Amino acid sequence: MNKVFNSILAFLITIGSQVSAADPDDLQRLIDTGDCVECDLIDANLRSADLNDANLSGAKLMGANLNSAELEGAGLGSANLSGASLNSTDLESAVLISANLESAELIDAYLKKAKMGLANLRDAYLKNANLSDADLYSANLEGADLSGANLMGALLSKAYMKGAILCNTTMPDGSVIYSGC
Length: 181
Fold this sequence. Notes:
5% strand, Pectate Lyase C-like, elongated
């Protein structure tokens, strides 16, 4: 782990320990190893944390603040991120297969080449998100707000998009759709 990562997380633990429902032992494990499978990080304040390549598979991150965090290449398969804030977060090439992102905020998130097959993105806010070349096979995007999102080259086979807002959204073939504006 790099020193910046440890410093940021130590600071966040210090300022957030009294208001966070996250398990302090799990936060420490994340700091020490970058490996926190099935951890309890509910409502954790991980804003701007360097979590590149971290393994958070199956982690409970409901309501967590991950705004501006670095999660490039992170493993978040089957993680529960419902209601989490991931605005301006770098999730390039992250694995979010079967993750629950219902009602999560991903405004201006960078999800290029993210693997999101079978993910639940129901009612998620993906305004201006970059989902280029992302794998959204069989993802649930019902009611998701994809206004201004870039889906160029994304795989949307069998994705459920009923009620999704596609206002000024760049589709996989490069066309721009204005639906729900």
